[in-house]
Amino acid sequence: MTEPPGRRERKKAATRQKIADTALRLFLDRGYDAVGIRDVAAEADVAVTTLFSHFASKEALVFERDDNFEQRLTQAVTNRAPHEPLIPALRREIQEMVRHCTADGTVPVYRMIDESRALREYEESMRLRHAESLATAIAADPGLSQTTTACRTIARFVIDAYSLAREADDPQAAVDEIFQMIEAAWEVT
After folding, report:
1. CB–CB of 60/22 below 8 Å?
2. What does the pLDDT look like over 90-131, one tens digit per residue?
3. pLDDT by residue (tens digit) across 146-179?
4. Crossing angle (nearest 10°) for helices 7-30 and 37-44
5. Of the candidates 3, 155, 2, which has an alpha carbon nearest to the alpha carbon of residue 76?
6. Rounded to whole angstroms, how far apart are CA atoms 104 and 47?
7. How far is it, in rounded angstroms, from Cα 67 to Cα 86?
8. Nearest 5°: phi and psi at 77?
9. Strand extents, DSSP E, 71-189
10. Is the pTM of this model over 0.70?
């Protein structure tokens, strides 16, 4: 059983969330390029150094749940039930993530990302990092015997499935279609 976070951790988490919420509101209201780090810090009533103690860059403010995304994917591999096949576990996690990211209110955020070269590049670097973490988790699974190349390939497919489904007219149908291909690829390795 894990202990609940202490007061200090709760305050840090609340400050981080306040900064992220403020940044997103400002970015959506004024445009990503029109808002600076100092604007976000002032509006959130924190010092610029405090902002940077929580976020490494301006782009990171938009993708504030980045670590959670990566952790959820690796845990889909490491926490699945014994003898549960890998691909269905990843499919469930991607379906849930797609459901969340296509909920009402997210369209303006993804439009903002699509319109900003800096955000698109940041998102691409995140996807590569997520794919590497996922590939490492897959390769470390003692019940799986695929090559490193196969693990990296499937991990990239899974990460791309999220992005492709998010952009589709019918995201859940897209997840189903993409994972049929991923399953077929996994079976031939």
Report:
1. no
2. 999 999 988 887 776 777 888 899 899 999 999 999 999 999
3. 889 999 999 999 999 988 998 888 999 999 999 9
4. 120
5. 155
6. 32
7. 21
8. -85, -50
9. none
10. yes
